[in-house]
Write a structure and sequence with these properties.
The chain is an alpha+beta fold. The protein contains 8 helices and 5 strands. Keywords: Kinase, Transcription, Transcription regulation, Transferase.
């Protein structure tokens, strides 16, 4: 973007600042992901569709998508085990680009023509990462070939960097909320056992823990069951 006119840089900077505020305003990690892909279609020139996926143990998990076409593209990457976003996650390379999906592609000989059948002309994949956490990949698609120039690639990389931090923060906040909620439910369940069944605090917790282990159910679920029924688990 260094060669772009000053007003282009200014518009991009304003849009990026608006995105940062918008992401921080979201209530959950999923809402953050959904907003990231929406912003990608605005901030990256030529971007018609965008999505976020992760690859865990060789399995693709779609986290967010602006359209069903993106979800179908994710499934293609899963089935073929190739594509820019699959490689961005598995190889830890920051950016992959396919400029023309109509042409044979040496790296992804099967993926490129299948994506072209969906009406896509070009694609990019960006690794979503923070210093301590690899999160997945942002995948960006255009209906036209040759759309993603150096400026678009740089814009995508900047967006992916900001998005990764926002997603990581949202996920941490959500996990903290779940942890506090779990602690509250366990405390409430222990109180019920102590009051209704005459157990000590230590014994009440042991009852919860044993029921969780015997039934192979999370401690939180056992606590929730006790809160709902008031009954001591057998």
């Amino acid at each position: 973007m260094a060669d772009e006119p000053a007003e282009v840089w200014e518009r991009f900077a304003v849009a990026l600042a608006e995105m940062a505020r918008d992401l921080l305003a979201q209530d959950s990690a999923q809402d953050t992901l959904d907003r990231i892909v929406e912003h990608a279609t605005v901030l990256i020139n030529g971007c018609d569709h965008a999505g976020i996926l992760t690859v865990r143990r060789g399995e693709v998990h779609a986290l967010a998508a602006t359209s069903d076409l993106v979800r179908r593209a994710d499934r293609i990457q899963q089935d073929l085990r190739e594509g820019p976003c699959f490689d961005a996650v598995t190889d830890r390379q920051q950016v992959y680009t396919i400029q023309d999906l109509r042409e044979p592609h040496a790296r992804w000989p099967r993926f490129a023509p299948e994506l072209n059948k969906l009406g896509m002309g070009s694609a990019m994949g960006f690794l979503l990462f923070t210093e301590d956490d690899d999160l997945g990949a942002l995948n960006v698609y255009s209906r036209q070939p040759g759309t993603f120039d150096e400026a678009a690639q740089r814009a995508g990389w900047i967006l992916a960097s900001h998005a990764a931090v926002a997603f990581s923060a949202a996920r941490t906040h959500q996990q903290l909320g779940h942890a506090l909620e779990t602690r509250h439910e366990i405390g409430e369940a222990m109180g019920i056992l102590m009051e209704r069944h005459g157990l000590t605090e230590d014994t009440a917790f042991k009852v919860l823990k044993k029921a969780s282990q015997d039934r192979n159910i999370k401690l939180r679920e056992i606590a929730r069951l006790i809160c709902e029924t008031g009954e001591k688990p057998g």
